[in-house]
Design goal:
The protein is α+β, with helices and mostly antiparallel strands. It has helices at 2-35, 40-69, 74-100, 112-117, 119-169, 174-189, 194-210, 220-235, 261-272, 313-326; strands at 218-219, 243-251, 256-257, 281-289, 293-301, 331-337, 340-348. Strand 4 (281-289) and strand 5 form a beta hairpin. Residues 146-173 form a coiled coil.
């Protein structure tokens, strides 16, 4: 936060240095054209007006606008604006008449009374120049402020989306881990040869979730490898007559996807298919990649009485994840027909 504040202050100072230098040079060049040349007294007059333009612009913006106008204290802001413009104009004229002009003009000075009371002269020759410079400066500051606030809002939205995405990634069904450990424990009791293989597969899944799962993109082939491990571990829970799985994979290009995207769909198919169906469950997975798109389709049979597939939190999370990574450049289809629940995802081959 401190670094951001220092950067903001530094950037504001650089902007002011550039802006006021440019304004002074512009005023000098304009006078050069009007008077067919420049004299020292014109430059001194310009310099005196320039100093008070800087003071007035910063006072109006950083004091009146930030502390009154932004807080919707419009009446106080208007009153203080009129008073401050009058006082700054008087001080500016007093500065020129009694401090600057004696260096190059030997004339009778205006009385202090006339400096305070000659409002028409004060308005035309002092207040308007102050207002003109302050108006341009304040307009630029409002533009910079709007741009900064827009960038800040975009960054906050991005951080919020990334936090939501991390939360979505962490929602892999905890029952899977509990059931898998129980199955591995049962295998170990029977001294099954599958014990060490199952432990290795579980280790690969956890490693994938903890490390590759935090990346923005992973290769489709890596995601499919971890899905193989997941299916192998989930299959330990079911007899062959209760679960039938078929896979068709055709990888024609090395495409990338957000991590855990397909794995979440496979988990959803097991949870709402085999996990809630006492009859045989069929799960069918199709994957195809080409230089343009990645197409992933998964189907699972379900019992007639099941009504929560499409409304599952898992599918809602997947859609949020897709929108986060691809905006609207994806296809997410859900269908239910003849006791077959089908989800299809089409994403660009590469996207960033």
């Amino acid at each position: 936060m401190k670094n951001e504040s220092e950067v903001h202050i530094r950037r504001t100072l650089y902007f002011q240095l550039f802006f006021w230098t440019a304004l002074f040079l512009f005023g000098t060049a304009r006078n050069y054209g009007e008077y067919d040349g420049l004299s020292s007294d014109i430059i001194i007059y310009n310099f005196c007006h320039w100093i008070f333009q800087i003071i007035a612009a910063n006072f109006i913006y950083f004091i009146l606008i930030r502390h009154f106008f932004d807080k919707k204290k419009y009446l106080e802001c208007s009153v203080f604006l009129i008073i401050s413009l009058y006082l700054l104009s008087v001080i500016n004229r007093f500065f020129i008449v009694y401090i600057a002009e004696p260096f190059f003009i030997n004339e009778t000075k205006d009385s202090i009374f006339s400096i305070f009371t000659d409002l028409k002269y004060l308005l035309i020759h002092y207040t308007f120049p102050i207002i003109s410079g302050a108006f341009i400066f304040i307009s630029m500051m409002f533009f910079i402020r709007y741009k900064d606030e827009k960038e800040k809002a975009a960054n906050l939205q991005k951080e919020k989306a990334e936090l939501e995405l991390k939360a979505l990634k962490s929602q892999l069904n905890p029952h899977f881990l509990f059931n898998t450990l129980n199955n591995i424990y049962s295998l170990s009791l029977s001294h099954s040869e599958k014990t060490s293989q199952s432990i290795s597969q579980l280790s690969d899944i956890l490693d994938y979730i903890l490390y590759k799962g935090q990346k923005k993109w992973v290769s489709v082939s890596d995601e499919l490898d971890i899905i193989e491990d997941y299916i192998a571990l989930e299959s330990l829970r079911y007899h062959t007559d209760r679960l039938q799985i078929s896979k068709q994979v055709l990888l024609n290009s090395s495409n990338t996807i957000p991590p855990l995207l397909y794995l979440s769909l496979v988990e959803n198919a097991f949870k709402h298919g085999a996990g809630k169906n006492i009859q045989q469950t069929e799960i069918k997975i199709e994957m195809e990649t080409n230089p343009q798109h990645s197409v992933f389709t998964i189907e699972n049979t379900y019992h007639e009485d099941q009504t929560d597939n499409e409304k599952g939190i898992g599918l809602q999370n997947i859609k949020k994840q897709l929108r986060h990574h691809y905006d609207e450049n994806f296809t997410f289809r859900i269908s239910r027909e003849n006791n077959i629940f089908k989800v299809e995802i089409i994403t660009p081959s590469q996207y960033d």
